[in-house]
Design brief:
about 190 residues; globular
Length: about 190
């Protein structure tokens, strides 16, 4: 069984590690800042391949180290807090790094902390703000605290559809064997 290399990035404190922990073990915990990188394997409904997730620190002191993990990733989840003061700027800061290091990765905008008390009075305007700049990204609205493991998996799974090779080994119009052998440097954007 192959895996889909995925990174999750975003500012420190955006809830990346809590989100992955909830999906993996169905337990919510407030986590301290990730130092460097954490690794997890996920299974999502409707996907034959497992998701290999590299949870990268948001601490800018580790920029050089974490940029190595961007290479050859097939998907990138960019976590932005629902109540971020400037969500477009935050998203673009991380998206630019993805373009520099892995331009063919599928980008998934993960809006975190949707259950936060600061969000409730403004929930529809917050959704509108994020949806206004989502194209060509997939956008999901999540809460590690109030959503259980099954809800999170169900919500995330469609974001990964189409990232698996078909029965002939063709992925996004490219033979996966050519990519792995270094004969093709980038997959076609979907």
């Amino acid at each position: 069984m192959d895996t889909i290399k995925t990174i999750i990035i975003g500012n420190s404190g955006a809830g990346k590690t809590s989100l992955i922990a909830r999906i993996v073990s169905d337990q919510f915990q407030h986590n301290s800042a990730t130092i460097g990188v954490e690794f997890n394997m996920l299974s999502l409904p409707g996907l034959e391949n497992r998701i290999r997730v590299w949870d990268l620190t948001g601490d800018m002191r580790f920029t050089e180290i974490i940029s190595l993990y961007y290479r050859d990733c097939e998907a990138c989840m960019i976590a932005v807090e629902a109540f971020d003061a400037n969500p477009r700027s935050t998203f673009m800061k991380w998206y630019t790094k993805v373009l520099e290091n892995s331009p063919c990765a599928r980008v998934i905008l993960v809006v975190t902390k949707m259950d936060d008390a600061r969000v409730h009075p403004h929930q529809s305007s917050i959704r509108d703000t994020f949806l206004s700049f989502q194209e060509p990204f997939r956008t999901v609205f999540l809460s590690a605290k109030s959503m259980d493991e099954a809800e999170l998996r169900q919500t995330l799974a469609p974001c990964f559809y189409g990232l698996e090779p078909d029965a002939r080994g063709i992925y996004r119009g490219v033979d996966v064997r050519d990519v792995r052998a270094g004969r093709y440097s980038c997959c076609v954007q979907s």
